[in-house]
Amino acid sequence: MSAISYRLVSLILLIGISPGAAGNEVATKVLCGIDVLVRDHFRELEGAKIGLITNQTGVDRSLMPTSLLLHQAENVELVTLFSPEHGIAGKLDQSNIDDVVDEVTGARVRSLYGKTRKPTAEMLSGIDTIVFDIQDIGTRFYTYIATMGEAMQAAEEHQLRFVVLDRPNPINGIDVAGPILDDGKQTFTGFHTLPLRHGMTIGELAQMFKAERFPDVNLQVIKCEGWQRDSYFDATGLYWINPSPNMRNLNQAILYPGVGVLEYTNISVGRGTDTPFEHFGAPWINAGKLASWLNGLGLPGAAFIPEKFTPNASKFENEPCEGVRILITDRAAIQPVKIGLAIASGLRRFHGEDWETKRVNELLGSDVVFKALETGESIEVVVSKSEIGLDAFKQRREPFLIYE
Q: Is 90 exceeded by the pLDDT of residue 56?
C-alpha cells in the first residue's frame, strides 16, 4: 500500500469520517482554503518555507492531507509540522502530548500541547511562514483557536508571515450566544473576549485577533468559496472528520456550547459513551424530575428524555448514571447555550447539595451569570444576564466577517 493510500485509509478507519451530505447533489460545493490554494497551484505561498499547524481535519475535498499536498508541492518547502490538542491524528485525550515524526512526509511534528503551547524560536528555525489548517467547531472554549492565537503571537514576535486556510463554521456563522468572556479571565480555554458561541470562522477570528491583540502580525486568510453564513456543515458537501475524539457528529457540535460548559463540574457529559454531549448525567441525578422540568420550560428546538447510562471511561467510569438525553427537534430554532444554562439552573434547583459548581465559571467565563446561577435566579434572569453585551459584540465582529 502506498503512503498516500495508507494515510487515507487511516483517516477513514481511525478518526471517524462520515460523508454527511458529501454525496448529496443538493449540497453546496464549498471549497476550503486548502482547496483554493491547490486550485491556484500554491501561488499564494510561492517560495515559502512553511511550518504547518494541522491535524486530521486538515484535508482537501478529496481527503488528501494538507501536509502531504504542501510536501509534494514544487514551489513551497514544508519544513515542520505542528500539532494542537489531541495530536496530529486527533486521537489522544491527554494533558501532555510529545513530539513525533509524521509517517507520510517524514517531517517532525512539534507538539503545541506539551511543554509549550506557543511555538518557540527553536521550533520556528528555518521557517518564514506559519500556515494554520484545522477545523474549528464554533465554541469559545474549543482550544484550536487558542493554538492559532498563540501561534499568531509567535509569528508577530519573530516577524513571520501567518496564513490561515479558512474552513466553515460547522454550526453556522449567524447565531451568536453569550455570555461574553470577562476581560481578565483569558486562558487557553478562553483565549479572547468572545461569547460562548461566536458565529465566526477561524479566518474571521484571526482577523479579529490581529486587530485586537497582534496588530503587527503579517496575516493572510485564504478564504473559503461557496460557503454561506447560515449554512451548517451538512450543507457544505464536505466530509465530517471528527475534530477531536469526542466530537463525532454535527449534533454534538451544535449542543457543545451549552452542554460542554458543564464538563468541569461533577457531571458526565457523555465522555465514555457513544454519544458525548448529546446527554449528561450523574449517579445522584433524578432524571425523571429534571427532564420533566426542562421540557416544561418550552425551550425551542429540543426535547429532553430521562435515561440511564454507564460511561466506560472518563468521569463516573463504570458507574451507573441517571441522565437526560437531548433531542434536537428543530435545528433552526434550537438555542444550545440557553439549554446549557437551563440544565445548570435545574441542577442547582433540584440537586444543589450534590452538584459542585465551583468550576462552572472556568468555561462559562462570566461572574455575573455565574452569580445568577449560584443564587438560584430564574432561568429567564440567567439568560438575560448572559445576553449582556451581545449586540455590541455583533457590531465589534462586523469588520472581520468575510462571508455573506
A: yes
Distance CA 92, CA 244 (A): 8
Contacts with 135 (C-beta within 8 Å, 6 or more apart), sequence order: 57, 58, 144, 167, 170, 241, 243
Q: Mean per-residue pLDDT for 312-336?
A: 97
For cell 438525553, what's the residue?
325
Beta strands in 36-121 (DSSP E): 49-54, 77-83, 100-101, 108-111
Question: Could you tell me if 65 and 88 are in contact, meaning their C-beta atoms sit under 8 angstroms apart?
Answer: no
Q: Does residue 170 have a cis bond before it (omega within 30 degrees)?
A: no
Domain that holds residue 337: 250-365
CATH number, position 167: 3.40.50.12170
Tally of domains within the chain: 2
pLDDT confidence of residue 104: 82
The answer to whether 312 and 328 have CB atoms below 8 angstroms apart is no
Predicted confidence at residue 223, as pLDDT, reads: 98
pLDDT for position 17:
53
Question: 313 vs 14, which has greater pLDDT?
Answer: 313
Q: Which of 238, 267, 287 is the C-terminal boundary of a domain? A: 238
CATH of residue 355: 3.90.1150.140
Say yes or no: 229 and 174 in one domain.
yes
Q: Check if the beta carbon of residue 167 is closer than 8 Å to that of residue 215.
A: no
Residue that has been written with the C-alpha cell 513551497 in this structure:
76
77 in the Ramachandran plot: left (φ > 0), alpha (ψ -120 to 50) or beta?
A: beta
Residues 84-136 have pLDDT tens digits of 999 999 999 998 999 999 988 999 999 999 999 999 999 999 999 999 999 99
Mean pLDDT of the chain: 94
Q: CA of 173: how far to CAs of 178, 260, 383, 394, in Å?
A: 15, 19, 21, 11
C-alpha cell at 184: 481578565
Both 222 and 307 in one domain: the answer is: no
